[in-house]
Each structure stands twice: as C-alpha cells, then as structure tokens.
Amino acid sequence: MKLTRLACIALILTTSAAGAATAPVHAKEPVDYVDTNIGGIGQLLTATIPFVQYPYGMARVEPVTTPGIVDRYLADKLYGFSAGPATITASVGAAGTRAADYASDFDHDFETATPYYYSAELLTWNIKAEVTAAERAAMYRFTFPAGQQSHVAFTVHGGGQITTSGNNAVEGSQGFIDPIARSLGSNAETREYFYAEISRPFAGSNAWKETAPARAQPTSRRGGGGGGGNGVTLDFVTHAGEAITIRVGISYISVEQAKQNLKEEIPGWNFETVKAKTRSVWNTTLGKISVEGGNDRQRRIFYTAIYHSLGRMTDITEDGRYFSGYDHAVHNADGHDFYVDDGLWDTFRSEHPLQLLLDAKRQQDIVESYTRMYQQSGWMPAFPGVSGERAVMIGHHADEVILDTYMKGYRNFDVNQAYAGMRKNATEASMIPWHRGPLTSIDKVYFDKGFFPALAVGEKESVPEVTGERRQASSVTLENSYDDWCVAQMAKALGKMDDYEYFLKLAHNYQNLYDVRTGLMGAKSADGNWVSPFDPKLGGGQGGRDYFTEVNSWLYTFNVQHDTAGLINFMGGRDAFNAKLDQLFVEQYGESKFAFLGQFPDATGLVGQYAQGNEPSYHIPYLYDFSGQPWKTQRRVRQLMDVWYTDDTHGVPGDDDGGETSSWYVLSALGFYPVTPGNPVYEIGSPIFSRSTITLENGSKFTIIANHVSAQNKYIQSAQLNGKPLTRAWFEHAAIANGGTLVLEMGSTPNTKWGAAPQDAPPSMSHEQLNNTTQR
To answer: How far apart are CA 526 and CA 454, in angstroms?
Structure first.
C-alpha cells in the first residue's frame, strides 16, 4: 500500500507522540531547582557569586568577569575561571601578554550555571568552556575549533609565581595579606598553591608579566594583591571539536600537597565522572530537607537559598593537616577539620543554626576551629579569613555560635578552651568597631557605667583606635549585652556561678540606652548624658555609624534578642510594644526614600524602617510571638518572603553575606526561626510548603505538616507537636533532634488566641531571672 506524503507525516507525528507519552519522566531532584545566578544583580551593594564547589569546599570555582562591574551578571567579558590563586582560560589566534588579551564576550543565554557544573560559550574565540569541582581540586574543559594557534592561558595576579613543569603541567602560588588585616597592621603573608595537569602535551609555552594597575584586574575573590600579574600561555594545534582538559589541585600548604590533593580527588581524566559525583554530593546535601507543595518558583528560591547557605565556612583541611593564618603554621587536624572564612556578625543569626540542623558534626568542627584560633592567636575571632582575623564589624559573636551548639547538645569540642576564649574577649578585648586589641578608655565605660559611649554633639574623636567606621556606640552596647548573656549562660552550664552573676549583670546594659521620651534606643556620651539633639531615624551620619551599625535606632531598638520580655516591659507592656513594632513596618523615610538609601545603602528590602536586606532585622518579625500576637508574625514573614525573595537575578534583598540572607528564607519557609541563638528553641512563623522534612545526621526526621496551606491560608488555627496540642508559638530544639512531627492547621483568617497567653511566650532573660528568684 502506498502512503501519500501527508499520510507519512501524520504517521511519523502519531508515532512520535505515542513515544513521548510512554517516555519516562524524571522528577526533579533538589539540585535541579538551584539557579546559582539568583542574586547576581545586587539590590544596591554586592551580588552573589555563582560558585561551582562542594558544600564548604576549598576549591571554589567562579567565572572571572570584567573588572569593576560588581553586578557580575551584567558583566560584558569573561576572563576565565578561578583555580585557587590562578585564573584559567582559552583562546585562539595570536597569543597575548596580558590577562585582558584573553577576555571573551559571553552571553547568559548560552550558559549553564549549577552548583556542580558551569559552562559558557567564549564567543570571541568560538570555544566552549566547562568547569566542575571536587573538594580541593577542580576540572576545566575547553572545546576548540580547528586552529594552528590555540591556547590555554594561566594568570596569577598580585606578583604570584607561575611556571611550567615538563610539557603537560603548570604550577604556582600567590602570597596575599588580607586587605582588612593589612589595614589593621598585619603583614603576615598566607600563600595559596596550585598544581595543574593538561590532558595532552602543549607544543610550546610563553611566560609573560604585565604591570597593569590593580583596578584593571578581573573581578574575583583573588582579584590581585597589587598591580599586574604573571602569566603562562600554552600553545596547541587543535582540530574542530577537540577538547583539552585541565585538572587542578589547590593547597595552602605547598605545591606538593596541591599535587597530592589532585591525585586523590581527580585521579583520572573523565570530566563527566567528576561532574556526576559533585552533583550527587549536592543532591544528597540539599535533600536533607525535602518539601512538598508550594510551587516551582518557591522551590527554586528555597533550594538556591540552601546552596547559598552552605558555601561558608570553608574546610581547608588537607590530608589531616591544615595551615592556620592565626600562627602561620601547619597543624595536625587531630580528628577535627579546620574551617575559615566566616562573618559572625552575620552568620550567627540563622546560617549557623541552619548548618547545625543539616550537619551537626561539621558544626562542632567549626566551633573547634574557633577554639583553635583562640589558642593560636590569643583572641576569639569574629571574622576569620584564610590569613587570620579580619576584625570586621562589631561584637564577639562567636559566643552565640558556641553557646547555641552547646545548648543544643552538641559538645564534641574543647568546651573549657571555648569558654576561656569567650571570657577573655568579654573582659579584655576592645569593643571598638573594626578593631582588635586590648581595652581602651572608652571600653571601660561599658563596664563602669553600663554603656559604650558615643561622642557628644560637637565632641572630636580622641581615641586613635576609632577609625572611619566610627564608634557605632549604641549598637555596640546592644550587641555586647547579648554577647555577655551568652558568656553568662556558658558559665552557668560549666558551674562557674561567680562568672554567671557578673556577666548576667552586664547583659542588662541594653536597658541603659532605652529612652522613655521616644520609646526608642538612644545614645549616651561618656559623662552619662543623652546625646542631644538626637534623630532616631536620620542621625549618626553615613550608615548611622556614630550611633548604630548600618541602620538606625528604629531598627536597633528591637535588637535585644536575649531579653525580648525585658524590652516589652521597658516599653510599657505588650500593647505599647506591639504598637511600636507595628509602627516600625510603616514608618517612612524622612525627606525621601532616595535620600534615606543614600545615607543607609545597606538598608535594602525596606518595609517601613524594617530592612530585609540587612541582618539586624531578621529576628524582628518573629517578636510578635513574644508579645501575644503570633498571627502578625505569620502575616509579616509571608509578606517578606513573597516580596523580597525571587527566583531571578534580583532575587536576594541585600548583601547575601555568604548565605546569611538566604538562610533566613530557608528557615522561614520551613515555618520557624531562632530569635535567640543560644536559647535552644525556635519561634514559629508561617510555612509555605504543605510538608517539609528535615533529616538529621543521626537519621532522625522532623516533619512540619501545614494542612490547607496556601497564599491566603497563612494563619495558624491550631497546632500539635507529636500528637499533643501545642498552644505556644515556639518549640524546643529537642523536638527536632529526637525526631517528630509538628502539625499546623492553616486558615485564611487570624486565630488571635493561639499562642497569645503571656505564659506561652518564648523564654527570655527576664524569665530566667524570675525563675532564679522563685527557686531561691
């Protein structure tokens, strides 16, 4: 039988449709939801980085883009890919003698960006570039057109060293001093090494040196330790579609150790094998939290936020040893991996609590790393980099991380040494912002009078340790009061009752700044007088830094995380507190929003004076749980998740700060948040998924079921924890650690009675004191 042409086409289409109907449909796995370009355009300041790495991995490969373009997604050129201290790229045509000679146009429409694999078309050279990573090694693959002049180029900036080894290897290193540490007087150098092997011998090579200014270096974490750089160009003759693969090991110990790391982690040349393993690692890690319900947009935001939350800190242990920038020596790890690159002013709030839920063993190693830093340097650090303490921001917030880990029952670290470091910082370390050193005259005011002193109006700064970041005096008082509460709790746990009483008294210092005239936190000069005139919204200069840290009094008034109950009492009770908290979310900007953001560029994600783009805000929406109106917490956290987190390049509401801003979303989407790290409890918000399950390291599972949840059904009507009614808007960490189920019945109207009774409020320092008095 003959078929007409149309009949043939119809048969083909019918057969294809039938085949498509029976073809297996692969469900998305957690890693498939991650888009590493989310947040690639900063709301006002910095953007996220699309790293390819293991969770906490030392090999963090990033696309190296055009100098000076801070919104990386908008960069016009791709200079290559980081490889420890080096940048690797490829080109065709005449070989260059500057990094810029190898830059290429690229287009995000021809790009794949995942946690385990990145690829882009180097449009200028008609080369496909691909990268993947292991823990301490990475792999690069360049697919070339036919050409007599094909090249792979290595660059090390800032006066680094680089050389070829034989006809198929390149090795080198770069010494660097953290720029912030340098500004604080540290000239101790840390060196990062790499060893690279190429899949086929190169036909020739050319070493070159450029002397371009530092600002001309590509945008990367190692964007240069000074002007210029050293490079090596490897020459090849390629046929169309030929792939040249490079595998690289990195180390902070030596080139030999970098070579060993490479041998152990990427022993072969199969790029797809390494890629598949890294994908599997991410999928397993992300899969520790499984979710049902919600929509694809929410799952993209959620799993990308977990990815962002697992890049910091960095495990720099190599074959059971690590280099420490705190004494510039190599140590045996002795069973505890060593972690660096943290920013505790940010990460103590929700990133470390989230990491603890996902990997308690690792979190204990992180705490032990802090303890070792104290032993090696004499101070408990606040912002540890690879090359040592960077002394950034304010407070001694290792206290919160150590206490939180301990109080949740995870104690595989040197507890006594940890406490010794906490106590030394609390009694001997200066509180001056962006400074590390012994007490000064203004620090002693905190102990003698109960507040860190601001400059009086017209008073000139006379303390040389105070830098351009200024005193930030009221924030320093508030945050150190919380730190002192943490030291008190640790002292009590260890039976050091004299210390407990001493630090508990200091934990009340926040009360000395509450100004009953305004119902907000003010500032006092060293003589004990209120600073006057004082504008709680626009006072303090750039970032409010005369008195506050990056934001203003309206926001910092609610930064008494350890004693919300005490703050409520100071404000005149629940009604007054709730009225002031309501006002925070609607209070406008003064002269204009434009002028306000010019003064407070960190205060992005604004809802009134509340700033979802900056960390001092994050616990505040949950404070209604303390004041008898949990339904307002439920409404507010939903609004913040819906408005300020998206699944596109603008998706992070402010500086992500290594994952802290993202970690808020993860926990809030699950339906709870730790207002007071150090108190082993979580305050309840409003989950967005119908079912979420956290699988802990010990195999226990904690499930949150939100029946009838939807965009409108955001309000909790009733709750059960492990089959028993839960009338309070909080639960203990033990409920998660032991495994269990939290069931929330959701509805479209607030249940104003659930969680509203005063006796159902979460614990605070004032409750602790009441209990102590009762026991006596």
So the answer is: 7
CA-to-CA distance for 264 and 135, rounded, in angstroms? 10
- The helix (H) or strand (E) run that includes residue 765 is helix 765-775
Longest dimension (CA), the chain: 106
Does residue 722 contact residue 735 with C-beta atoms inside 8 Å?
Answer: yes
Query: How far is it, in rounded angstroms, from Cα 694 to Cα 735?
Result: 12
144 to 206, 233, 271, 445: CA distances (angstroms): 20, 16, 16, 67
d(CA 616, CA 94): 53
Query: In sequence order, which ranges of 245-350 are alpha helices (DSSP H)?
Result: 255-265, 271-286, 296-309, 344-347
- Between 322 and 697, residue with greater pLDDT: 322
User: Does pLDDT of 58 surpass 80?
Assistant: yes
Axis crossing angle, helix 296-309 with helix 660-670, rounded to the nearest 10? 130
359 in Cβ contact with 410 (< 8 Å): no
CB atoms closer than 10 angstroms to residue 646: 16
CA distance linking residue 54 with residue 34, whole number of Å: 14
Q: What is the pLDDT of residue 569?
A: 96
Distance of CA 511 to the CA centre of its chain: 31
Element (H, E) at 139: strand 137-144
* DSSP per residue, 478-531: HHHHHHHHHHHHHHHHTT-HHHHHHHHHHTTGGGGGEETTTTEE--BBTTSPBP
The pLDDT tens digits of the residues spanning 701-755 come to: 999 999 999 999 999 999 999 999 999 999 999 999 999 999 999 999 999 999 9
Residues 6 or more apart in contact with residue 513 via CB below 8 angstroms: 451, 474, 477, 478, 521, 522, 523, 524
pTM for the model stands at 0.94
pLDDT higher at 5 or 423: 423
Rounded CA-CA distance 637/625 in Å is: 12
Rounded CA-CA distance 469/482 in Å is 21
Q: Give the angle 414-419-425 at the CA atoms, nearest 5°.
A: 130
Residue 242 pLDDT more than 80? Answer: yes
Q: Is the pLDDT of residue 313 over 60?
A: yes
CA dist., res. 418 & res. 372, Å (int): 9
Residue 589 CA: distances (Å) to CA of 523, 557, 596, 600, 601: 21, 17, 6, 11, 13
Mean pLDDT taken over the chain: 93
Side by side, the strands of the sheet bearing 242-251 are: 111-113, 118-122, 127-133, 137-144, 242-251, 190-198, 169-176, 161-165
Which residues is 64 bridged to in the sheet?
Answer: 80
CA distances from 429 to 188, 323, 603 (A): 21, 25, 29
Residue 468 pLDDT more than 80? yes
Q: Which residues, 6 or more positions from 136, have their beta carbon under 8 angstroms from its beta carbon?
A: 57, 58, 59, 249, 250, 251, 261, 265, 318
With cut-offs at 50, 70 and 90, classify the pLDDT of residue 182: low
The pLDDT-based confidence of 26 (bands split at 50, 70, 90) is: low
315 beta partners: 339
| DSSP string covering 602-639 | T--SEETTEETTSGGGTTGGGGGGTTT-HHHHHHHHHH
> 606-630, pLDDT tens digit by residue?
999 999 999 999 999 999 999 999 9
Tokens representing 333? 């790890």
Phi and psi dihedrals of 265, rounded to 5?
A: -100, -30
pLDDT of the residue at 768: 75
Beta carbons within 8 Å of 422's beta carbon, 6+ residues apart: 380, 396, 398, 399, 402, 486, 487, 490
Going from the C-alpha of 427 to that of each of 280, 348, 396, 421, 480, the distances in angstroms are 47, 21, 11, 10, 11
